[in-house]
Every structure is written in C-alpha cells, then in structure tokens.
Fold this protein.
Amino acid sequence: MKTTYLFDNTIYTIPPRMVPAIERYITKRCRPGRFLSAIICNDLAEAVARADKGNLSNLPAYMMFFYNHAPGGCWGSKEKMEAWLKGGRDANSEEVSEDIPVTKNVSEMIKKRLDNPPNNSIDTIIIPRPIEDILQKLAGEIPQKKWDKLPSDLNDNLDYYVYGVSNMST
C-alpha cells in the first residue's frame, strides 16, 4: 500500500500503525476509528480535532492515498462510508457489491506491497501546484510599469474591457 508521498518538497507518510485499519476498512469493510472515519468522510475539521501529532502532520498523505488509490465508492462523504460498510452503494456512485472486483484488486495491491516492499521507501507522486500559485508566479514576472498601465477601474468594469459591453460603472 502506498503510504509515503512527496508534495511541495515535503514528505508525508501514513504512520505504519494506521495501515492495518485502512486495509480492514477497504478490504473487509470494518468500521474505522473516529479519526480515520473523519478522513474517509472528507471532514477536515473533525480529522484535525481527532488527530494525534503524528497523524496531524501527515494529513496530506491520507488524502493522497484515498484520492489516488482507494475505490471511489468507499470515501468522500459519510453517506459513501456508511454505504461501503453495508456493502451497498450511495446515490452518487456506481453499484458496490460484496464481491466488487476493485476490492479484490485493492487486496492484491496491499498484499503485493507488503510482500514486496519497494527498494526506495518513498513513492513519489507529482501533484500539480494550485492555479493560484501559478498565476501569482506569472504575475510576479510582469514588470510594475505594465501593471501601472492597466485602468484603475479594471476590476469593476472587466466586461467592458474584455467584451466591449458599453454600460461602465460611474
């Protein structure tokens, strides 16, 4: 099971003591503890409130694992978690049955991972930077002289400047 991720030059790891609980939840549909339930339900406030120091500093690893490796029907909301535990489905996902092939695949992935640990203990996933960071970096490359040439009312009258709409604010 992938447990270590590199994001923005920081390494995040799911603590080894938490791996069996995740495996039991995904493969055997066993109810997880309150912290892991909060992660699975996508409840950040509850996850932060329930996390110990080791889990709190590694929250991104949990999110990257569930987003990239867990079956989509098993996490993301309380309804999805409850449906997964019952072996059913929620209204927004495909059918989930007891013998769902993806569960078998996850079991095989976990077994393979435990039986054959990688030579390198860090599995790297390149996570794209948020668009805000990219835009901020690009904006920083524009000389101040260019910024000074923009109209002072650009924000208020963007439609006028972009589309030519004639009703400018006064």
Observations:
- Residues 90-104, 117-127 have pLDDT under 50 and may be disordered.
- Residues 4-115 form one domain.
- The chain is about 50% helix and 5% strand.
- The two ends are 60 Å apart (CA to CA).
